[in-house]
What does this fold into?
Amino acid sequence: KAGVTQTPRYLIKTRGQQVTLSCSPISGHRSVSWYQQTPGQGLQFLFEYFSETQRNKGNFPGRFSGRQFSNSRSEMNVSTLELGDSALYLCASSSSGGSTQYFGPGTRLTVL
Amino acid sequence: AQKITQTQPGMFVQEKEAVTLDCTYDTSDPSYGLFWYKQPSSGEMIFLIYQGSYDQQNATEGRYSLNFQKARKSANLVISASQLGDSAMYFCAIIDGDSSYKLIFGSGTRLLVRP
It folds into this structure.
């Protein structure tokens, strides 16, 4: 079974731009979660989607948004990028959300 | 609020020896799950092992075992027969039973295996 895939793997943007990251979960998994990892803040939960519905959201500004499609693929969008948004963005999928989450390789975003 | 504490920022171990990575947690929920993940320099988080709060036995997965002491709220990861490929960051994480779908991570422990 194929694992979680994330595209793109690397991204360089400038302040003020917006970015969209994509995540394809493991086949059959309906829950997709997003995390941000930075050296200063560590791993922080962004949001979780299940069957196209956002069930939980972390403590991030409204510039961070996401969605999930009917095939369980998910996208997250960051608008008006700031330097502090530079991070590794990890997507994880699970069968139901409360079960084991399997992570993708991440998208490394650099904001200049 | 749930919290994970990993007090060892970095550790060394000799190849083929066993090593224990510490993890303590705090939660008021009686139903929770504890996870360990490995993150090599490539960045991907690799699931290693899971322990449920109601599990009677300590979890084991190959060379990984979890020393679960519920009363002390600790869930230490034991890696037996360390290999050079075990050099990585290791994260302990908790998820509560029903009301949340988010993993709360500790700050991680960087393990370096010496040949």
Observations:
- The radius of gyration of chain A is 13 Å.
- Chain A is about 0% helix and 55% strand.
- The first strand of chain A starts at residue 5 and ends at 7.
